Amino acid sequence: MGIFTNHLPRPRFGASFQRPALACCVVLAAITVGSATLSQDNTAPQKASRVALVIGNSAYQNVEPLPNPANDARLIAEKLWESGFEVIESIDADRETMLADLATFRSRLREGSEALFFYAGHGVQVGGRNYLLPISVAPSSIDDLRAQSVDAQLFVDIMDGSGARLNIVLLDACRNNPFVDITSQDADEIATRAITIGQSRDEVQRGLVLLSEASTGGLAEMTAGDSETMISFATAPGAVAFDGVGQHSPYTASIAETIDEPGLELAELFRRVRGGVRERTDGQQIAWTTSTLENPFYFKPDTANLRGATTGLGAEGDTLGTLPPQRIVDRIFWRAIEGSDRLDAFEAYIKTSPDGAFAADASARIAALGGVPDAVRAPDPALPALQPRTEAAQTDFRADVIARLDSDAHAVPIGVGPSRVALSDQGADGWVYVSRAPRLGEIRAADGTPLAQGAVHYVRVGDMSEFEPHVGSNGGRETLEGKVLGEGGATEPVAVDVESYVDACDMLAGNPYDSERVTAGTRQFILDRNFEGAIVVCELAIARYPDVVRFWAQLARAYRAAGRYEDARVWQVRAVEAGYINAMVYLGQMHLDGQAVAQDFERAYALFEAAAAAGDTAALTALAWVHRAGVGVPQDYAKAREFYERGAARGNDWAMTNLGEFYKKGLGVEANPEEAKRWYIQAAKSGELTAQTRLARMYQDGDGIAQDFEQARFWFETAASRKVPNGMTRLGVMYEQGQGTAPDVEAAARLYVRAAQQGDGEAYFRLARLYASQTPLFDDPARAALLFERAIKQEVYGAERALAKLYETGRGVDKDMIRARALYSVAAKGNPWAARDAGRVFASSDGVEPDFTTAATWYRQAVEGGVPWAALDLAKLTETGRGIDQNRTEALALYAKALSLSDDENLVRLVAEGVANYSAAEFITAAQVMLARAGKQPGAADGQLGAGTQTALAEVFAEQGVPLPSGPITIDILAIISATY
C-alpha cells in the first residue's frame, strides 16, 4: 500500500487545529508544481522572548548549607515556565555552572526581550558589592571570596546591555554572613585545601577572621542601569532575611502565591508580595524593591494570544530545546507512568531524572517488577563524586511535587481534545453566572456552549461539561468560578479547578522544527540522551489518545533516535498517511538513508518538496542537503545554499548553521570566515548547539577570525550549560589552561567529571591526566589509571601512552613493564613519541629482559616521525651493536639527525658527549654517506676530504643559505646535511 493512501479513520491533531486535507492531495500537488510552489516562503521576524535564569543554591560544601533555596528556585522556575518564560534552571551550582548558565541566559536575550533573574542562596556584601556564593565556594581570604563567587551586578549589567525592554531581578539572598558562625569542620576543610595549594595555616586563619568581619549580613543596594529595571530584595538593604521554617522562604512563598493571577500588574504584584512577607514574618522582614519601570508588565497577561506570550512557540527552532524545569518534568513524567506496570517506564524515569522527586518510588516499582534499581544508573567508580543534594531539600522537593500532583484539579494534556468535568457544590439546576473563566482553555456546557466569563448559562445538576486547553501555553492550574442565581437574589457559589499541561510525549519528543508542535520542543541532542523515556511516554500517550497523530510522529522520532528504524517507519508512515506535515520530512530522510525502507532518492525528494510546500522549514534544510551531497541529483552548492537561505529567512537555525559552514569552507561561494561567523552567531543565539561549538572553536583557534578566548569561553559555556559533553570538556580545558579566564583546575576537574558522566572520552582522559600530574588537590595516580582505562575503551588518542607511563613507573598501579610495553606498542602505531617510549621500555632491563631488536625497530619508527631523542637512542644502539648491526658511521648520522631535529640544551650536551670519541676520518666518512643520501656526488666514502666531498658540501650549504665553516667536519656540519633529507 502506498504511503499516500488515506485509509485510516480521521484522527485528531489536537486542540484548536483546523486540519486541511493534507494526506494525498497536498503531497501530490507539491510534487507536480515543484519549485514554483516553494517560492512563496515568507520571512518570519524573530519574536521577542521571555527568558529567565533561576539559581538556587542549598548544598554548600564548605559553609552552612541552606534548606530552602533549591526548593525556592524550583518553585519559581515552575511558575515562570507556566507564565511562558524559557527557563534556565540552575540548582546547587558551582561557579563555573553559574557562569555557564549566565552565558546561556545572555545568549537568549535580544532586543525587546523580557528578562528575569532569580537567585536564592548565600550572598554577602563586601566593600559595597554583592557577591552570590556558588556551592563550591571555599575562600581563605577576601580576595578568594571575590574570585570564587559571582558579583551580582554582573547579572544586572548583562541584562541592561542586552536590549531587553524590561529586566526583573529577584534576590532572595539576604541571609546572614556564612563565615561568621562557620563550623570548625568547615573551617578545617577550607584550611586543608588552602594549605595544600601553598598557603600557611596562619594566613588561612587571618583570612577567615577577615571574612567573618567583612559583612554583617544583608546585601547592598544595586544600580539598575539605563533600561527599565526592577530589582527586588527579600528584605531591606543591609538587613538579614529569613530562610523560612517551611518548605520555602517567606519571600519566595509570597511571590508564588501571587504570580498566577491573570492580569495582575507587576507593581501591584510586589505590593502584595511585600504584604505577604510582612505577614509571614510577623513584621520582622520587609521586602524591598527599587524600580525604573515606566511600562506595565504582567506575568499572566490577559490575552487570547497565548502562543505569542510563550517563548519557543514562535519561529521553528528558536528555542534552547531542553527539558522544562525539574518540578514540571517530575510531575508530567510520573503522571504518565504512575499507573503503568512497565518495568522500562520506571527505569526510564530514573535515567531521565536520577535525582527526581519520585526516584525512590521508581526504584521501589523497579524492584517490585523484578528489576534491579541500582543497575539502572550505577555511578562509575572511576569518577569522583560531586556534591550530593541535601537530604532536607530533597524531602521538601518531593513533598512539593506530590502536593501539586495529588491536587483535585481536572488535569488535561494540551492538544488532545476535551475532557469531561463537572461544577462542584451545585445543589440545584439553575442559571450560573461565570465570574471567572480559565484563560488557558475553554470549559463548555453539556450543549457545547462555552462558559464565558461574564456570561450566564443554565446548568443542570449532574450535567458534565468539558474542558479543552488552548494550544499555545505551557499550561497551568486555573479555576472556573461562578454563582448559581437563586430566587430573591440569593446565590450559591460553584467552582471547578482545571489544569492544562504539556503531555510527557510532547515534553520529551516534541520537535522544535514542527510547526504543529504544542510546546517549544526538544532538540535532537536532548532526545538522543532520553530516547528510552520518550519511547515509553509516547507509547503510553498513544494508548490513552490513539487518534492524536502528533503523538504518532513523535513516537517515530523517538524510535529513530534509538535506532529502531522499523518501528519508526511504521509510525512515520501512519503519520504521513494522516497528513502530518513534519512526518513527511523524517520519512523522506529514512528513504534517503535506507533506514528500514529501500533507499529511494526520488521518493525522499518528493516528500521533502511536499512538506516544504506546506510550510515546513525542516524540509527546506533536507532539500538543501540533497543538492549539497548530490544524492539522486547533481551536486549543486548554489541550489543547496538557496534552500538554506530560505530556511534561515524563516528562522530555521539549522539552515543558519549550514550557511555558516558554507562560508567557512567555501562551498559554492568564496570562503568568508566573517560571514561564517555571522551565520554561526545567529544560529547560536537561536539555541543551535553545533553552531555554538563551531563558533567557540573559531574564536579559540583564531580560525579565519581574530583569536578571542573570552568569546570562545562564552560559547563553550552556552554548550556546557545544556550538558553537551564535549562542550563541558572544552570549557574545562579553558579553565585548566587559563584561556579567557584565570586558571582554575578545580573548575576544570568538575567540568571533566560531568562530561565523563555523559560519556565523553576526552573528559576521562583529561581528568586522568590531572590525577596523574601530582597537581595539588589532584594527586591520585590510582584513580588516574582507572580513568585512563575508560579513555582507552573510547579510543582516545594518547590514553595508552599515559597509562603505560604509570605501569612503567609503578605510580598508582603495580609496576609492570610487560604491560607498559604492550600499551606503548599500541600507542606507537599513531604517535612517534609513543614509539620512542616503546623503544625505551623494550631496551630497559628494569625487571625484564631487554629486547634491543624490538627497541631498535620502535626507535627507527620514532626517528621517521621526527623525534630527536629517538635518534639519540638509536645512535647509541647502533654504535654498540645492540639489537642492530654495529655501524659507527650510521651512529654518527643518527647523532646528527637528533641535533638537526632539536636544539634542546640537554640533547645538545648528550650528543656532544656521544660523538667525543669519534675520529676526524669517521666524521668525513659519515659526511660522505649523508651527502650521497642528499643526492650529491661526494665520491667514495673513504674518510678523505677530497675535492668531490668539498664540492658536495659547498652545494648543500649554498642551498641552505648557510656559509660553509672552514676546518674539520663537525657534528654541527653533519646536522645541517641531515636536515636536507
Structure description:
This protein is α/β, with parallel strands linked by helices. The strands form 4 sheets. It has a 6-stranded mixed beta sheet with strand order 2-1-3-7-8-9, sandwiched between helices. Strands 10-17-16-12-14 form a 5-stranded mixed beta sheet, with no helix packed on it. A hairpin with a 5-residue loop joins strand 16 and strand 17. The two termini are 69 Å apart. Mean pLDDT is 90; it is low at 1-46.
Short description:
This protein is of the alpha/beta class. The protein is built from 42 helices and 17 strands.
Based on secondary structure, the structural category is alpha/beta
Provide a count of the helices.
42
Q: Give start-end ranges of low-pLDDT stretches.
A: 1-46
Percentage of residues in DSSP E strands: 5-15%
| Morphology call | globular
Distance between the termini: 69 Å
Rg, please? 35 Å
- The strands making up the biggest β-sheet line up spatially as 2-1-3-7-8-9
Can you count the beta strands?
17
Described by strand count, sense and barrel closure, the largest sheet is: 6 strands, mixed
Rounded average pLDDT: 90
Helix content bin: 40-55%
SSE blueprint and pairings:
Blueprint lengths: L24 H9 L1 H4 L11 E7 L12 H14 L3 E6 L3 H14 L5 E7 L2 E4 L2 E4 L9 H7 L1 E2 H9 L5 E7 L11 H13 L4 H14 L14 E5 L16 H9 L7 H15 L7 E4 L34 H12 L5 H10 L6 H10 L4 H4 L14 H15 L4 E4 L5 E3 L8 E7 L4 E4 L11 E4 L5 E5 L5 E11 L5 E11 L2 H6 L14 H6 L1 H14 L4 H13 L3 H13 L3 H13 L7 H13 L3 H13 L7 H13 L3 H13 L7 H13 L3 H13 L7 H13 L3 H13 L7 H13 L3 H12 L8 H13 L5 H11 L7 H11 L4 H12 L8 H13 L3 H13 L7 H14 L3 H10 L5 H14 L13 H14 L10 H8 L3
Parallel strand pairs: 1-2, 1-3, 3-7, 7-8, 10-17
Antiparallel strand pairs: 4-5, 5-6, 8-9, 11-15, 12-14, 12-16, 13-15, 16-17
Helix pairs in contact: 1-22, 3-9, 3-15, 4-28, 7-8, 9-10, 11-15, 12-13, 12-18, 18-19, 19-20, 20-21, 21-22, 22-23, 23-24, 24-25, 25-26, 26-27, 27-28, 28-29, 29-30, 30-31, 31-32, 32-33, 33-34, 34-35, 35-36, 36-37, 37-38, 37-39, 38-39, 38-40, 38-42, 40-42
